[in-house]
Amino acid sequence: MQIETPYLMFLGDVPDTLAAKTAYGIKDWRPEWCVGQMRLPGCAADLGIPDLTLDEAMAKGCRTLVIGVANAGGILPGHWVSEIVAALNAGLDIASGLHARLGAVPEIAAAAKANGRQLHDVRHTHETFATGKGTKRPGKRLLSVGTDCSVGKKYTVLALERGMRERGLDADFRATGQTGVFISGRGVAIDAVVADFISGAVEWIAPAADPDHWDLLEGQGSLFHPSFAGVSLGLLHGAQADAFVVCHEPSRTTMRGVQHPLPTIRQVIDLTVQLGRLTNPDIRPVGIAVNTQSLEEGAARALLADLAHEHGLPATDPVRFGVDAIVDRLVAEFPKAAA
């Protein structure tokens, strides 16, 4: 899936900022792609970028209207359809991360066909994937894994992409979820791939590459989460990860949506190494990324220092304190191939 940029962000009439979290994620990490926003009366979200009409957006070079909304059930409200049709008639492609398929709405499908425009349902893919083979392939790959879902796995690898590129390293973020696909303009929402083909889809996302190239794969779920462990394991095997970063949110005691207790960071490291060795016997941890948003700075730094000492790994909050220590570890552990 290759989504044309730049974007016009469609927020509809969402009742709060959380309902537009996909749009906020894109704006946070790819602000240069977000030319403007389009809001309906009553919208309570504001990305802090210009409000544009369709004509203004086209004049500024927008290529795709992104429905940057995550609502309960992933539905497409009926009163948005006319706005989407108008965008197609104006010459924009449409991209959506909702569960509802754009092409299933007759008016949208007809307008896209009449105008020769693309409809991108980011949660779905038309690609056909092979089953994973686990055959050793060149290039280096890093995967973010977690003690739970929604602990910062995407933000961690995006921060690493930025930090590694600033150091002159060849690194690319590889999206495996809907918001990540919008941020990168490509990728596959792994949670919508048929189970037999998850690892094969990841091999497709991060194929053979130059020996010094790093693919930074966005993790999903957790190996310990009873709802999502299958996706997490398929990602791990398909990534054939050389390195991984453990992501953690310290205020939780049980995993999201279930009553199972949160695993320890040590348990995540040990199980990731044990299972990851199936496709890469040399897999190793290179850092711990902690979402310290709920902690004051002093408490956050103290926690990170304790974790670094306990596990012998650099520990940081990638958004709050940066990723230099993890990049240092990668450079030390994986020197460049000889010329």
Which SSEs are present, and which pair or pack?
Elements lengths: L6 E6 L8 H9 L4 E6 L14 H6 L4 E4 L13 H10 L2 E4 L9 H10 L3 E3 L18 E7 L6 H14 L4 E4 L3 H7 L13 H8 L8 E4 L11 H11 L3 E6 L16 H12 L7 E7 L6 H15 L3 E2 L7 H10 L6
Parallel strand pairs: 1-2, 1-3, 3-4, 4-5, 6-8, 6-9, 7-8, 9-10, 10-11
Helix pairs in contact: 1-6, 3-4, 7-8
Can you describe this structure?
With 339 residues, this protein is an alpha/beta fold. It folds into 2 domains: 7-121, NAD(P)-binding Rossmann-like Domain (Rossmann fold); 140-333, P-loop containing nucleotide triphosphate hydrolases (Rossmann fold). 33% of the residues lie in helices and 16% in strands. It contains 11 helices and 11 strands. The protein has helices at residues 21-29, 54-59, 81-90, 106-115, 153-166, 178-184, 198-205, 229-239, 265-276, 297-311, 324-333; strands at residues 7-12, 34-39, 64-67, 93-96, 119-121, 140-146, 171-174, 214-217, 243-248, 284-290, 315-316. Helix 3 (81-90) packs parallel to helix 4. The model has no long low-confidence stretch (mean pLDDT 94). Residues 129-327 form the D-glutamate N-acetyltransferase-like C-terminal domain.
Poorly predicted ranges:
none
* CATH homologous superfamily assignment of the largest domain: P-loop containing nucleotide triphosphate hydrolases
CATH C-level name of the largest domain: Alpha Beta
CATH topology label of the largest domain: Rossmann fold
Going across the major beta sheet, what is the strand order? 7-8-6-9-10-11
Count of DSSP-assigned helices:
11
Structural class: alpha/beta
Cα-based radius of gyration, to the nearest Å: 20 Å
Order of helices and strands: EHEHEHEHEEHEHHEHEHEHEH
Strand count, sense and closure of the main sheet? Answer: 6 strands, parallel
Q: What is the averaged pLDDT score?
A: 94
Which percent range describes the beta-strand content? 15-25%
Anisotropy-based shape: globular
